[in-house]
Amino acid sequence: RKIREAHEKEKGVSERERGVKDIMLPLSAFGTINQEQTAQEAISEILKSFIVTPHTPSVHETIHRSILVNDAKGRVVGLISFTDLLMGMQPPYMSLKKERPELAYTFNIESPAHSGMFTILVRDLAQKKVKDMMSEAPPTIDAEATLMEAVNKLLTLNVRRLLVMKGGDAVGVIREQDIFFEMAHILGIYERES
Distances in Å between the alpha carbon of 189 and those of 43, 184, 185? Predict the structure, then answer.
């Protein structure tokens, strides 16, 4: 045991490395919105994450670039990101370009691009319900999982965040940038707040 402890001390490795629950963002720190609210309200909620407050000097703690969507019972049922909002601006016929490209080509379907169209579509988007444009809820991971389990799941599923679960309840979110900052901390490049 003493030899192992000496080796770990020399190599900077500890038996007890931080896990998912140690670096996740608690749900209370992540923006949320109800699925019945509007895109305008979602945009407003996302904007709040760009405001750096004096008690939160770290950029990675304030910028989420997405918010979680809850149902009437407060359960996480989806996610709204920049991409979801941009896709919400697309006229319905534009989905043919992705779903049936040969048909879209036959009818020469193009994006509306004339001047003023962006403003019109943004104003239309503002009234849409969140539930009509949200992405699926992030995949889940157990709060007791190791960081390597989180890395493997992020890569395997090709996602940027995981919903952290404890006893069947969502308790937080772990994002790729949280893992990045932990990497920087281990290397002594970044000192996080305790």
Answer: 34, 5, 6
8 Å CB contact between 140 and 167: no
What's the pLDDT at 60? 45
Record the pTM: 0.73
CA distance 13 to 11: 5
